[in-house]
Description:
Blueprint: E1 5-9, H1 13-23, E2 28-32, E3 46-48, H2 52-57, E4 68-76, E5 82-93, H3 96-109, E6 113-115, E7 119-125, E8 128-133, E9 138-141, E10 143-146, H4 153-157, E11 169-177, E12 184-190, E13 193-199, E14 205-212, H5 213-216, H6 222-228, H7 234-240, E15 244-245, E16 251-254, E17 264-265, E18 268-270, H8 285-305, H9 310-339, H10 342-354, H11 356-365
Parallel strand pairs: 1-2, 1-10, 2-6, 4-12, 10-18
Antiparallel strand pairs: 3-5, 4-5, 7-8, 8-9, 11-14, 11-15, 11-16, 12-13, 13-14, 17-18
Amino acid sequence: MESQEVHIVGGGLSGLITAMHLLKNGFEVTVYERNPYPKHKVCGEYISNEVLPYLKSLGIDPQRHGAVTLKKLQCSSAKGRGVVVDLPLGGFGLSRYTLDHIIYKEVLLAGGKVLKEQVENILFYDHTFEIKTYSGKTFKADIVVGAYGKRANLDITLSRKFIQQKSPWMAVKSHYKADFQSDLVGLHNFDGGYCGISNVEHGLVNVCYLAQLNSFQQYKDLTIYQEQVLRKNKYLNDFFKNAISVFEKPLTISQISFDRKERVANHILMCGDSASLIHPLCGNGMAMAIMGARILSTCIIKNRQNRGTRQELENAYTQQWENEFRARLQWGRGLQRILIKPMAANLGIATMQHTPRLFKKLIEQTHGKMESV
């Protein structure tokens, strides 16, 4: 299969990175994104430095846009037992509002097309994709990348297995003005979930937490839930008592699925959260999205150079994705099962207080390595 045209459904982080990489290698790229830029998204907004050389190779330097250097991780149990360690690779904090907008503008400068369209259906027949949008337009494509996020109506249309199951998770995000240690990432457990805190650009602090729906439903109000549940953790209480939200209201999403997803569905190459979602407590979802886009882009480029078949492309991408991320996801699921249980979390953090090297090893299992590009 030899093609130089790729259509990407979804203009979030993984979709835009894929577009940028392919444009730099001579491909024609069309991105479908229904939302205007810039836009806030529910996200932890911490990114491991493992992706920094790759981003810079694409001409994207987060530090030039106010990214905050992050060096330490603080973790606490719901009962307030805490531990702090150095992040093995370090990282940086930058909002999706800023990062996605930067890459979007770079895609346009590189000659990419970004259409303000929502895709309704994607059909595949006679070795060609037909993309239908809600505005009634139809587009043809040789290669289609699915980068539309955690869940969408397209997942129902494509009969993906994970979409059939209800998920017990919801996520909430807001930016705050607050006095929070600049180089620190906080990961704090509470009864029914866990909350991440880290600095981003312009002196703001991003707070994003994941909660079980059955924990939230008895309160049915985010303010009350924050006051009566999150603030029982002394670290979260210390933060919220002087923090001022700059959002009119928090952003929320529900039905977040951590179930296994196919990397290829109806010949669509899935990327980012459409391919899989690592538990946010691992703090590395954005880096995974970026590295997943790199893997996919490299596979597409090599397939074109070798004049490979579609099946060869799909097999290569699936295998390389699994090689890179399978172990991370397994560790993430394991950690989530432990830390969501108060007694286990308290015991685990007590153990890590006495053996911080063990804590660092656990962090390394959910992160990649710094690679030159």
